[in-house]
Amino acid sequence: MYQNNQGSLQNFGKVNRPRLALTMGDPAGIGLEVILKALADPAISQKYDITVVGNRDLLAQTYEKLNLTQNLVPLVNPDLLSVINVELKEGIKGEIIPGIGNAASGAASFAYMEYAIAQTLAGKFDGIVTGPIAKSAWKAAGYNYPGQTELLAEKSGVKRFGMLFVARSPHTNWTLRALLGTTHIPLCQVSEKLTPQLLTEKLDLLVECLKQDFGIEKARIAIAGLNPHSGEQGQLGREEQDWLIPWLEEERQNRPQLQLDGPIPPDTMWVKPGQAWYGNSQMQNPADAYLALYHDQGLIPVKLMAFDRAVNTSIGLPFVRTSPDHGTAFDIAGKGIADATSMKAAIDLAAELVSQRMAAVKL
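Request: output the structure for the sequence above.
Response:
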């Protein structure tokens, strides 16, 4: 059912290198382009054992099309890659149109994900790097998941999971880590979904991740308030007074090894990270990680600082999973102008986290 086409780069010094499955994402988007650009970099292709999960024909078509553009960024020839062809239902491949997400492209990207997850759980890969998908295309194909994270958790059989965004500053080499308390839900549902139990679960995951994947035993974690000015002592919202501050005080008592700052007003929490990212000389003592309470509270500042470098990391899974922090960008698909920086960062981070876990097992 599946065919593994092995290119000449496949056996280049693979001993002890992290084995990564790299899914193509939605084939109508920029996923194929950023893969071809990322794997053209010897610092990526020769450093890690990477298998592309998707379809070689679609990669080849993208390669040929991009070579006709005035594309100054090197592309890897798909013939040189290790590619697993995932079989699609009859007719689907012919309905995939570059730049247009539809049921066919959604079905393809879902099939790539299912295969990569199954093979990783079976021990064939150490981690997964996922290309960007379109949730609307998944829905059109009949798959009602909020995103790839939820599918990964379901297939892995885990109930505790989170979305951690990681980025390393090109200015200072400081590492930004931001976890979301809630993820893909409407803003009007945030206050009802947020509970002390949920935040304890997210904090547990974050502490475990910092220790397991980054070697940080005694972390400093900054936790955002929910309301403007963290509620202004109840004048701008009651959540902080009613349960967030009492919850945080209890967590401080239960976790004396940690420094838990907060609840920090959301409009000022990101000042120190910004200073640490850009190298402001007045920056003092940034946190090891930041816990934002909802999607945009965390991702607006993260993308403002690190749009081309941030990596979406799923924590709580039995394996490493990373993804570039951008979407399918259907509007520029096939034009040769997509930036592969975030894909490279996702591959690098996945390999780094796999290596960290392997080293910990050997101790």
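The first strand starts at residue 3 and ends at 5.
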